[in-house]
Amino acid sequence: QVQLVESGGGLVQAGGSLSLSCAASGRTFRTYSMGWFRQAPGKDRELVAVIQWNGPSTFYADSVKGRFTISKDNAKNTVYLQMNSLKPEDTAVYYCGADRDSYSIRVTDYDYWGQGTQVTVSS
Question: Distance between CA 88 and CA 84 in Å, rounded?
Fold first, then answer.
């Protein structure tokens, strides 16, 4: 089992920045990739960014490319999401996910989830 705890959400004005953290504990050696996802009211959960746990690969949704940066600190078992130039449409609950088996961009491939953290961007 892998436990994930997100932190860092909040309220920010459009154009501002926020940084999210996701601390993993438990059997993290079984983690292949970690990702950030978001879910706005009435919408499905969608991929934001993915990072390979034991490699260099990253992937970003087109909607956040150039504005968001995913990074990791393997020693601290922590994944980060730096969000710049935030827009009102970035408003959502942001979730951290861990995939045991693959480097995937599909929400359904992720095995473990955090509780989520609210990000609200005002116009």
Answer: 12
